[in-house]
């Protein structure tokens, strides 16, 4: 994380110009930042400008942060304002002394500049960059430059493999007492595609090992970790995660809570702000975490559709080739499967709404979304095949585990092992979006539907999002609900509804 504490200072590193710590009630979304008064004599003498990178020294420890200037009476001229989270990281109390000074220059930034000018980077240079990012030495601006440089350049196999290994080296790595450790990953871009909890439950119920670390949303209304968190704790450390897997054979935890690929979590935060997701960093992100989690065999789901992340079969083939190439260089067995990305999966779009779909499938309810069930079973069968099961038997075996209730029992056991199961919540406010005319459902715009769910508050508001009422090919009457927007406040609900009205063709109807 960008708040990572650096190495302890020496005993001779005295506070030459001590200032006083002042806690500020602000949230910075993981960015390490501090505030100093524009008349602070230390800031003036050191020549600190706004947004300059500075080093904090307190109680024998150092930490890098971005400086901002206060121009009013928010702070006294001998105070440093820190978010409560940074105060805790440095074990500071109100009024404790600390020093603010210029940090040592970062040589790895020259490698970032080289990448910006189109040069390819080897594993040594990428290792220096990733290590500095993981240690919190880069500002958000520096990281954004690195992310943008990769996004602007076509992905190349050797460089992507080098980036993958550099990200892997920056964190911890798990080992399991199993010959084959299974995993799956979807590259994203398809709302409601919440197959992971179902697949993990089926695979663990089959007696295989599947320690699943999942991401929170980057540019979508929900990530697997967001949806899972509405049903069970997902913020487990490595020791807790290992206990769950040893006990139940699988888990579904947030990857950011375990130090498996720490630089990736920082990169994801910046990618979310930039709304970019380059192929090279996508591949390095996915594979570094799979390798770090101790996975040996991974099934990769690539949804393809005009408004999915992957727009065409040609793009999917290129990404699949890159994934397979890099995985081979890193000693990981992968299989890729291209799936339908033309419309959302299930009914819910948003953490709790997607969780309700998952529970309905696991419980074999009649009203469960059948497309989510079929997709999860197909992926589970693919993983069973990857483990060595006969292809003729894999789908039958996965279906049997689900229909007999063994997958549901395993899911509830995993939830209990992670800290206890809870029912996902329901939004207090809802509003139906009605068809303006009669017709047949022709197309869905996944991006606009996802945007509507995000404007309603997802994923930050766990119960916010969209509940779909139609699928492709359905006949609808004028005034029939196409979807229902769920929100936790009327303001967010109104905002999302207004956006939907301006983009009413996100579900396009054609004449019958």
Could you give a short description of this structure?
This is Putative thymidine phosphorylase. Its EC number is 2.4.2.4. By secondary structure, this protein is α/β, with parallel strands linked by helices.
Question: What topology emerges from the helices and strands here?
Answer:
Elements: E1 19-24, E2 33-37, H1 41-46, E3 53-58, E4 61-70, E5 79-83, H2 84-89, E6 97-101, H3 109-116, H4 123-134, H5 140-151, H6 157-169, E7 182-186, H7 196-205, E8 210-214, H8 224-229, H9 238-248, E9 250-254, H10 262-274, H11 279-292, E10 297-304, H12 313-329, E11 333-340, E12 348-349, H13 351-362, H14 370-386, H15 391-403, H16 406-418, E13 429-434, E14 439-444, H17 446-455, E15 465-468, E16 475-476, E17 481-487, H18 490-502, E18 507-510
Parallel strand pairs: 1-5, 2-4, 7-10, 8-9, 10-11
Antiparallel strand pairs: 1-6, 2-5, 3-4, 3-6, 12-15, 13-17, 14-16, 14-18, 15-17
Walk me through what this model shows:
Helix content is 40%, strand content 19%. Helix 6 packs across helix 11, helix 6 packs across helix 12 (313-329) and helix 7 (196-205) packs across helix 14. The longest helix has 17 residues, at 313-329. It has 18 helices and 18 strands. The protein has four domains: 19-101, Beta Barrel (Barwin-like endoglucanases); 109-169, Transferase, Pyrimidine Nucleoside Phosphorylase, Chain A, domain 3, CATH 1.20.970; 182-418, 3-Layer(aba) Sandwich (Pyrimidine Nucleoside Phosphorylase, Chain A, domain 2); 429-510, Pyrimidine nucleoside phosphorylase-like, C-terminal domain (Aldehyde Oxidoreductase, domain 3, Alpha-Beta Complex). Mean pLDDT is 92; it is low at 1-5 and 7-15. The protein is of the alpha/beta class. One of its GO terms (biological process) is pyrimidine nucleoside metabolic process. Keywords: Glycosyltransferase, Transferase. It catalyses: thymidine + phosphate = 2-deoxy-alpha-D-ribose 1-phosphate + thymine. Its EC number is 2.4.2.4.
């Amino acid at each position: 994380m960008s708040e990572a504490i650096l190495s302890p200072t020496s005993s001779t590193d005295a506070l030459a110009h001590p200032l006083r710590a002042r806690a500020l009630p602000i949230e910075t979304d993981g960015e390490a930042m501090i505030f100093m008064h524009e008349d602070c004599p230390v800031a003036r003498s050191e020549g600190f400008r706004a947004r300059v990178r500075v080093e904090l020294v307190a109680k024998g420890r150092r930490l890098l942060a971005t400086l901002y200037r206060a121009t009013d009476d928010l702070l006294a001229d001998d105070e440093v304002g820190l978010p409560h989270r940074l105060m805790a990281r440095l074990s500071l109390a109100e009024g404790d002394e600390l020093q603010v000074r210029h940090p040592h220059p970062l040589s790895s930034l020259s490698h970032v500049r080289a990448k910006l000018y189109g040069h390819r980077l080897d594993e040594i240079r990428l290792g220096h960059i990733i290590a500095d990012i993981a240690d919190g030495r880069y500002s958000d601006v520096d990281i954004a430059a690195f992310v943008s440089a990769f996004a602007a350049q076509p992905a190349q196999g050797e460089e992507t493999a080098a980036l993958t290994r550099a990200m892997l080296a920056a964190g911890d790595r798990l080992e399991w007492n199993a010959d084959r450790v299974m995993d799956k990953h979807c590259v994203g871009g398809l709302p409601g595609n919440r197959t992971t909890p179902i697949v993990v439950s089926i695979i663990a119920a089959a007696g295989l090992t599947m320690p699943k670390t999942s991401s929170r949303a980057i540019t979508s209304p929900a990530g697997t970790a967001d949806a899972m968190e509405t049903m069970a704790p997902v913020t487990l450390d490595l020791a807790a995660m290992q206990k769950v897997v040893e006990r139940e054979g699988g888990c579904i935890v947030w990857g950011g809570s375990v130090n498996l690929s720490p630089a990736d979590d920082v990169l994801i935060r910046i990618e979310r702000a930039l709304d970019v997701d380059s192929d090279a960093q996508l591949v390095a992100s996915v594979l570094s975490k799979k390798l770090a989690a101790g996975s040996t065999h991974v099934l990769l789901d690539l949804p393809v559709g005009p408004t999915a992340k992957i727009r065409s079969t040609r793009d999917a083939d290129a990404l699949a080739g890159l994934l397979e190439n890099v995985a081979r260089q890193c000693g990981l067995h992968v299989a890729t499967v291209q799936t339908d990305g033309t419309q959302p999966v299930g009914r819910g779009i948003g953490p709790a709404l997607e969780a309700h779909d998952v529970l309905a499938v696991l419980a074999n309810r009649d009203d469960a979304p059948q497309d989510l069930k079929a997709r999860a079973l197909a992926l589970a069968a693919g993983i069973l095949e990857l483990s060595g099961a006969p292809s003729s038997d894999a789908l039958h075996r996965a279906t049997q585990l689900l229909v007999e209730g063994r997958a549901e029992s395993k899911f509830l056991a995993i939830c209990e092992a992670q800290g206890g199961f809870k029912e996902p919540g329901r939004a207090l406010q809802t509003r139906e979006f009605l068809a303006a005319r009669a017709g047949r459902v022709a197309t869905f715009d996944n991006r606009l539907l996802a945007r509507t769910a995000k404007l309603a508050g997802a994923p930050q508001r766990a119960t916010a999002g969209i509940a779909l009422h139609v699928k492709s090919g359905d006949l609808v009457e004028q005034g029939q609900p196409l979807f229902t927007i769920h929100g936790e406040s009327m303001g967010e609900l109104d905002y999302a509804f207004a956006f939907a009205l301006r983009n009413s063709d996100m579900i396009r109807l054609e004449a019958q």
